[in-house]
């Protein structure tokens, strides 16, 4: 722009040039313009980690609309010199996140897993929920007066149609807890209804039981269950089963779950049981909350 005196005014009032503005760090060193790279280029062994600068990674997104993620290269960092500036990176599954950003290599990294709709962070060993806890699944099915998910007359063995709520492989660690709830309402009173909330790799009621309830033969009986399970090993969880959460306990106050339990594989939540052919049972709601160790 060649307006007389403009250059003098621009210098005096530090008006940014129309040809671009340079930015400087606290030491007065110029910060290079933000380059755009792919993840493969960003993680390549020859990528420059000696120059402090911001970098856009075009194929790792920072929101669900496909915005590239912004990173900062910090040469003075002892180990992790690639620092995420965006709130988080977005991945559809835990497996894809871990493949690109192993937890041990990116301590503190934040991510949104869209298939679970939860935010996680790397603790340097694995990814855990931000804040330590997250709801993995929850759903409700109408009301007591107007239920929308019912096992009707004619059925004996049954499984409620809740889809396939799946806990991804390697999400859970030893000493993690699962707090699970369910609410049911039965109709007619022909026989006791054995009812199970199960978790395992088969995705059927043959999996290990988080909760085994015996619903008495009482018409219009509402049953509420709250289950606390602790992951004691990769192939075992300890649950309160059909015992009370408080009180003196008994033979059913704690139980091991082992059948088809494997935290290194995907595990599916299932709710079902058996009943008299003339009885009906409504599932009103269920939920699973994850508390990481």
Structural write-up:
Strands 11, 12, 15, 18, 19, 20 and 22 form a 7-stranded antiparallel beta sheet that branches. Strands 13, 14, 16, 17 and 21 form a 5-stranded antiparallel beta sheet that branches. A 4-stranded mixed beta sheet has the order 3-4-5-6. With 293 residues, it is mainly beta. It folds into 2 domains: 10-125, no CATH class; 135-291, Jelly Rolls (Sandwich), CATH 2.60.120. The chain is elongated. Residues 5-21 and 243-249 have low confidence and may be disordered. The chain contains 3 helices and 22 strands.
CATH topology of the largest domain: Jelly Rolls
Number of helices: 3
Q: What share of the residues lie within helices? A: under 10%
Alpha-beta classification: mainly beta
Shape: elongated
Supply the number of structural domains.
Answer: 2
Major sheet details: 7 strands, antiparallel
User: What is the residue-averaged pLDDT?
Assistant: 88
Q: Mind telling me the C-alpha Rg?
A: 27 Å
How many individual β-strands? 22
Summarize the helix and strand pattern as letters.
Answer: HEEEHEEEEHEEEEEEEEEEEEEEE
* Strand content range: 35-45%
Assigned CATH architecture of the largest domain: Sandwich
How far the N terminus sits from the C terminus, by CA atoms, comes to 62 Å
Q: Poorly predicted ranges (pLDDT <50, ≥5 residues)?
A: 5-21, 243-249
Q: What's the gist of this structure?
A:
The chain has three helices and 22 strands. It is mainly β and 293 residues long.
Could you outline the blueprint of secondary structure elements for this entry?
Layout: H1 6-13, E1 23-24, E2 30-31, E3 36-37, H2 39-43, E4 53-61, E5 68-73, E6 82-84, E7 89-91, H3 94-100, E8 110-113, E9 118-122, E10 127-129, E11 133-140, E12 150-151, E13 157-159, E14 166-167, E15 177-187, E16 193-200, E17 208-215, E18 222-233, E19 236-239, E20 255-257, E21 267-274, E22 280-291
Parallel strand pairs: 3-4, 7-8
Antiparallel strand pairs: 1-2, 4-5, 5-6, 8-9, 9-10, 11-22, 12-22, 13-21, 14-21, 15-18, 15-22, 16-17, 16-21, 18-19, 19-20
């Amino acid at each position: 722009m060649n307006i007389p005196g403009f250059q003098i005014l621009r210098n005096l009032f530090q008006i940014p040039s129309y040809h671009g503005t340079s930015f400087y760090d606290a030491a007065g060193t110029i910060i290079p313009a933000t380059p755009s790279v792919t993840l493969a280029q960003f993680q390549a062994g020859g990528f420059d980690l000696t120059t402090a600068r911001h970098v856009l990674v075009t194929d790792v997104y920072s929101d669900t609309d496909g915005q590239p993620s912004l990173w900062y290269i910090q040469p003075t960092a002892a180990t992790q010199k690639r620092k995420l500036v965006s709130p988080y990176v977005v991945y559809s599954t835990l497996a894809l996140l871990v493949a690109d950003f192993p937890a041990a290599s990116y301590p503190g990294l934040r991510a949104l897993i869209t298939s679970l709709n939860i935010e996680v962070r790397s603790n340097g060993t694995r990814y855990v929920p931000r804040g330590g806890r997250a709801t993995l699944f929850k759903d409700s099915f109408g009301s007591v007066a107007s239920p929308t998910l019912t096992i009707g007359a004619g059925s004996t063995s049954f499984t409620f149609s809740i889809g396939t709520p799946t806990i991804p492989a390697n999400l859970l660690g030893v000493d993690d807890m699962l707090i699970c709830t369910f609410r049911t309402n039965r109709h007619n009173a022909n026989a006791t209804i054995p009812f199970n909330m199960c978790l395992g790799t088969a995705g059927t009621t043959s999996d290990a039981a988080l909760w085994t309830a015996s619903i008495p033969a009482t018409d219009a009986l509402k049953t509420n269950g709250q289950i606390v399970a602790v992951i004691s090993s990769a192939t075992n969880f300890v649950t309160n089963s059909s015992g009370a959460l408080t009180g003196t306990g008994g033979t059913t106050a704690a139980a091991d779950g082992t059948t088809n339990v494997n935290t290194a594989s995907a595990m599916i939540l299932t709710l079902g049981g058996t009943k008299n052919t003339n009885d009906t049972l409504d599932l009103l709601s269920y939920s699973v909350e994850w508390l990481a160790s």
